[in-house]
Amino acid sequence: MARPLLIATNLRYPCDCMDIQSEITSANAAAPSDFENEVYDFPTATAPRLFYMIASTPRSGGTFPSQCLWRTGLMGAPHEYFGFYGTMLRTVSRLKAPTLDNYLSKLLVVRTPANGVFGFKAHYDHLQFMLLVGLLSRLGSLRWT
Question: For residues 136 and 145, what is the distance between their CA atoms, to the nearest angstrom?
Answer without folding.
Answer: 17
